[in-house]
Design a protein that fits this description.
With 112 residues, the protein is mostly helical. Helices cover 54% and strands 0% of the residues. It is elongated, with a radius of gyration of 18 Å.
Length: 112
């Protein structure tokens, strides 16, 4: 699930605020998509499929997340990533950065 955040230099302060809001919303959408992938994976990893073939082999349904990340484990609690991002963005201004891309270490603050 690749995504691209395009950021152009704004010409006015109003344009700058509008662009920051768009970037913030795009980040939030990406976190929402990941949150939905995790929720789908949780459901499919906890329940077995109803098809006869899968019941005979006792294999769980495969989620999109499991196909993308085969080594992924089971999530037992929901992860509200969109909400966590929006709260963290107020404090750390992740979506306002122009020259420093978000890093894994910066994003781990979301789940703490």
């Amino acid at each position: 699930m690749p995504f691209v955040l395009i950021r152009e230099l704004p010409s006015t302060e109003k344009e700058s605020r509008r662009q920051e809001a768009l970037v913030r919303e795009r980040y939030a959408e990406v976190f929402q998509d990941v949150e939905e992938l995790i929720a789908d994976h949780s459901i499919k990893s906890l329940y077995r499929a109803n098809t006869v073939e899968q019941q005979e082999h006792n294999t769980p349904m495969r989620s999109k997340l499991k196909m993308l990340v085969p080594s992924i484990g089971i999530f037992f609690t929901p992860l509200p990533l969109r909400e966590a991002f929006l709260r963290t963005d107020v404090k750390r201004a992740i979506s306002e950065r122009r020259f420093v891309a978000p890093s894994f270490n910066g994003m781990t603050a979301l789940i703490r």
